[in-house]
């Protein structure tokens, strides 16, 4: 097996430019604004102090204008939706700050922009941007997190007074985990079931004041602190209860549904389900930011672990009589380098996703298919990126041994904070199931009406094979794929076309398999709920392999964009490592379905080992190129303390 | 595919008895003594308060006599080594307490017992047991954790004064992460390179006072606080530096090596390496306790998640018009039930390991092979149990969604505390490598002398196939294995004999494969370090599949001990689930090596799904049977809060 010679050096500046991508200027701007925004001390100062620290940092971000990036230019913002997402991603070293900023400007502010109309924009946006109106996004309830469509809070229109009455009818309907609620928030976008004249119109959002200027809870509003969490303790999460709280009719964020003074309900979208999903779709930025910042945190953890792995030594090599840097051990490389390769893959996929979001947000007309495709990618990438982050940060922690367990070395804090990213802004398992449903139904209009039950029936009736649509940008990839050699070629593992075809073929096969299975089972007259539930592992796998394909295509496209030949080789090998370690993880499937032979399966493992060895000398350069703001890397083991100790020990021993 | 009908109920009391095992009385005693030993509040009270709380709980344990279990009866203890290990395992709900107790009575006290002689026992043991002498086990250094044989602290004998001079020659040689050091410890067992009359005799341990009665550091001793950690913040870890600290000659724990007044060194063990490994072997209890308590914490997390999964509902089933309990979803079952099955498997393997430790500790004569086998099992089970704990607790956290992220629901705290168990008391990766080395060399005497380099040479020269020894207790298993049907039988997946043979065959094949590979590569004249390093993933796999086999045998033996027929069926199906989910995880290997066909591979996945569905109704009973002390389960979501909310919501909706 031949792998091209790995260049000894490459143009790191070009790599950094490639990685900075379309919003390089925003990255630079945020990096600068963060210069005066240091990390809180690693010693836990207690919840209250953490919250204060994060609030101060938020206010500082607001003065630098970063907050305005995503708001309409008509109201003092910059209308740069993509840039705003990237700016949140840059906060990966301080996830409490990122989440609190995401709540204020992304979710709370974003909801006012996307679900409200001119009257709300005029009244609130300036105050939201400059933090003079801290707010909450009150959607999740204790009883309903994943299934928000079933939430229990009610907003009943009282035509006599022209007001809505917002109410929490039972404990499970209290608003739960609401960021900014426990301490700072003064207003909340409250999602509630809208009742008008005895009729139910589904979930709508209203602006509800929760505290006065002095910070005292408004009449009828009860606020509880959610208490200590596994992480993100700089965010003041709380619970909200409403006891027949009255707000004026104009408090309704009325872009997708409105109530006239006389109590007439109107909406541009007739179907209640479709209306709900359209509202959710308008809030897609939050999920995309979560995917991005998951990547950013992963990069920090990898930088800490790789820098430490390069200088930390353990066990003498009798051949050289020196202790061996731990990153020279294959087992250590295998822990960190495939994770680095996957981080690259996800980085480029994220860049594509943000671009797509940005372009759609500024497009004159967005067709429904594009919007669904965006939502599907956001869901899939959010799930894969947050799990990748959690697993990689944990792996980095273990790779740094006891040193990795000291709070000062950042890894446990990052892990604690990132943990909840796998279940908030959509539980990962639920999100992957949505991705699969979209693929199985090709985003047919019926989609939202279907639910789990109808899905199985729909697939049974109408699914006619997985139609995987391709955008124009994919054509170059198709050319590469078409040029792939036949299966028996020796070095096929490193052929980009073969790799693309392999991922593509797996996706098609799994998707068609699920469809066939659902169709077969349903035609037997079985209970559709049971049918779908029994196939759940299969359905989730369909989503995963779909996202894997999307991510690979983004990585391949980035390699193609590379103009420096040495860099192209290194990046290409990193892409090979991503592909082959992904194949290795799912080797059972490829063998079971005779996509690779036993012999080639062994060659995959050997190739992963070889690529790890080859890329090891570049590991630190590759992780540096991400351009993580320097003040997010404070771990003593990654910033000189370990290197100095090793030096002192060697001097002593000489 | 036919699976025997799963009984609707079974004798839970018999199951509890089976699980309580040989030290049922100790479990009961500790459970009782813990009645007045509640968990600290979930709100983080700050490091100092946490430490105080844990110290108070330690003192309470001491007054209940639990501390004395493992100490010699001649000195006021009970000489029950197995019971003492089980008593630490019972502290799984409060890992700071477990670790601090483990440091004081297991490591510090254990070192005095195992490495010291009568003079040390007489002088110290009573004070250690009743906590009037809090102490430290000062082995690890900043520069050497995994490779403790290379530590840098020196103890130089001064024949003129009859004293040892203990010294920290450079920063990397400071004692790091020493439990009890930052706050409470007054004495430390310090491991240091022994220098006598210009000669080096390797690592030895000495009793060194570090604080006086008033808590002031002794002259020449500097103590630093290790600071905030990712968890276990109730343990006061610290760093120790020694600046030419003098202790009397009698401070040397002199069981395996002594220095006479005139400076003559003597030892019953000539080889320096062998002496070192004999000392380490005498301290094996710590590692076994870690494996046990990892299991205990896993059970707590599973109990919280399963109880919640049973009452928590999300998404309506249109067929029943009721929301579905999340544990009814296949994806949810797949997260939790194979983990429950593996927890059973590890529980029985741990019971065997503790029995083995206990019997060897009371045996008249212990042959070296038995001792090595014990050390190997301890290393392997510690690695697998701590990783299983970390992964399962994290999975439970995610399975409880946002509720799982609240500190009050225990899961994040358990995860934070257990995290470091994967890298302390031996880094898991390093431990598995040791297990593999033992297997490859069949614990030949040369073992400890070999190191990584010699290992490869040794295997190349002498390895003649993996000889897997069997104890007498294994004979019944052999009969089951021999009765296994041929490969083509339809329901072979559920045949215990086939399962045993499958695990056994995999172990043999992998082990022989590694041996061949090392032999081949070394005979090519390659650098042995490189050869071994390039095969490191293969070597680690050998250790893993070995431990899997050992664990399965323990589970099968427990099923065989079952007398209640219904219980035997349920437990047997849990064992099937353990086997088949383990096969599923490693399916690629079985396919690649043609141990199972593509068709059977699919059947394995289907069988895992079916077993999950079958066992789901018993999930809570199965986890309850572990008999976790009730005060370790405080999570509101597992003790009624969620059930009450669901009830209130249903009442409201009617």
Automatic annotation (TrEMBL), chains A, B:
Residues 281-440 form the Acyl-CoA oxidase C-alpha1 domain. Residues 26-130 form the Acyl-CoA dehydrogenase/oxidase N-terminal domain. Its cofactor is FAD. One of its GO terms (molecular function) is acyl-CoA oxidase activity. It comes from the Bacteria. It is an enzyme of class 1 (oxidoreductase). GO terms for biological process: fatty acid beta-oxidation using acyl-CoA oxidase; lipid homeostasis. Keywords: FAD, Fatty acid metabolism, Flavoprotein, Lipid metabolism, Oxidoreductase, Peroxisome. It is found in: Peroxisome. Signal peptide: none annotated. InterPro entries: ACOX_C_alpha1, Acyl-CoA_Oxase/DH_mid-dom, Acyl-CoA_Oxase/DH_mid-dom_sf, Acyl-CoA_oxidase, Acyl-CoA_oxidase_C, AcylCo_DH-like_C, AcylCoA_DH/ox_N, AcylCoA_DH/ox_N_sf. Residues 136-245 form the Acyl-CoA oxidase/dehydrogenase middle domain. Residues 501-638 form the Acyl-CoA oxidase C-terminal domain. Its EC number is 1.3.3.6. Its main location: other. It holds the Pfam family ACOX_C_alpha1. Belongs to the acyl-CoA oxidase family. This is acyl-CoA oxidase. It comes from Allosaccharopolyspora coralli.
